[in-house]
Target: D-lactate dehydrogenase (cytochrome)
Amino acid sequence: MDFTELKDIEQKVEEREDFSGEKVRPLGVFFPKDEDEVVRIVRFAKKNRLPIIPWGQGTSLTGAVSCDKNCILVDLSKMNKILEINDIDWYVRVQPGIKLIDLFEELEKKGFMLPPDPASFFLCSVGGAVAESSGGMKGVRYGSFREWVLSLRVVLPNGEVIKVGEPLRKNRAGYDLVHLFVGSEGTLGIVTEIWLRIIPIPKRKMVMIAAMLKDFESAGEVIVGLRKNKILPELSEYVDADVVKALNKHLSANLKETEGGMLLISIEEDSVDDVLKVLEGKTVDIKIAEGEEAEKLYSLRSQAAIAVKAESNKVFYAEDIVVPVSKLPEAIRRLREIGEKYNTKFYVISHIGDGNLHPNIIIEDKVARENAFEEIARMAIELGGSVSGEHGIGVQKAKLMAEQIVKHNGVSVLDLMYHIKKLIDPDDIMNPDKYVELAYKFLTSRG
Ligand SMILES: Cc1cc2nc3c(=O)[nH]c(=O)nc-3n(C[C@H](O)[C@H](O)[C@H](O)COP(=O)(O)OP(=O)(O)OC[C@H]3O[C@@H](n4cnc5c(N)ncnc54)[C@H](O)[C@@H]3O)c2cc1C
Model:
């Protein structure tokens, strides 16, 4: 492919791999420095019918940035500025390539926070987190990115630039196009500017309860107990016994190893006793941490997937099911049964407080690994849950997403989604053959 027309835009020829291990073999990688360059790249791609893959930091766990045919990557990492922090209207305006950790640090200096904190916050870009509607460890109280995006500038697949939404807390003008783009996994356009709601850092003192559980089942029972007692932690995260071992082995975590793994609950100091009552009879050991010690536990939790990846020797599928919280005990029981059936352990990492479980499947045999992955997702569908809470669909979950939508919403809903994609991207150049489009193809090939 002759890229002479774009020669003044920084570019490279290189292969990449995303965090899920999917290969990325583009014809070229472009590094636009501003929106005008993004527009030129998109127009060039449209003229040449070249698939474009928007790339944040490649931490996708579902193959959302994969490409093994004639495509180009648009790497947004050079568009990484904070454009405005508005301390009266309480929003921040950023370019998409800024790393989430850098944004968190700048906001903290000004006494603000953006609550959604995917465990990859130290790696991922804000644009990627918006395109995935990432959740995170504080999701139980604050929700995922979907709840924090106010407005976006987007380069559409025809090269036109639109701004959707306004930096307003309330806005009823027209269909909610902001939330059409949030979570669209780069299939509808390239996000070039983002307005996000921010809040002042809460002043009340928080503590971190590290509960080493007596068994796996206790994890779900404690969360149901918290709900019954109307306790809403800021964070309630779980890693199972094998993840605790992996953290000790690969990150020198020095955590106590128990059969039930570790539940982390961050909560206001004056609610600690209420939590301890719910934990009664479910733990082997409890530590109440503050300050640096609490930060260390939070940081270990955020690196849990890295420890599991080190343990798995790269054979690694990160599941991402959500079930209604009331169904957590049943989901955990059935997970154990599926593990026994496949003679494996699942290395469960979980935003358990909102019913979001990440069993990491490290079975060597690919067919068995895929079968276990699908069986877990179908269990979630059956329990009224979802095949993805936050990691998205990419290529790995398209078939399962089709099954979920057909079962829970009906064929016509998937059909509508597919036609929205076709309306916005008639030439099929924007991150094609993934997400909704691939799900629709599975459905129609099935007849
Ligand atoms: C260790 C680890 C922990 C994780 N923990 C969590 C977690 O707790 N919660 C969670 O939700 N996720 C988690 N994830 C996965 C999560 O999807 C990503 O970390 C993150 O949201 C993606 O950011 P990224 O910049 O790497 O995007 P990429 O992986 O580069 O891209 C992700 C998707 O966004 C699209 N995209 C990127 N930038 C743009 C843009 N500017 N415009 C349009 N589309 C764009 C891409 O095309 C792709 O479809 C984790 C991943 C890792 C590796």
Notes: The longest helix spans residues 366-382. Residues 149 and 196 are 5 Å apart (CA to CA). The chain has a mean pLDDT of 95.
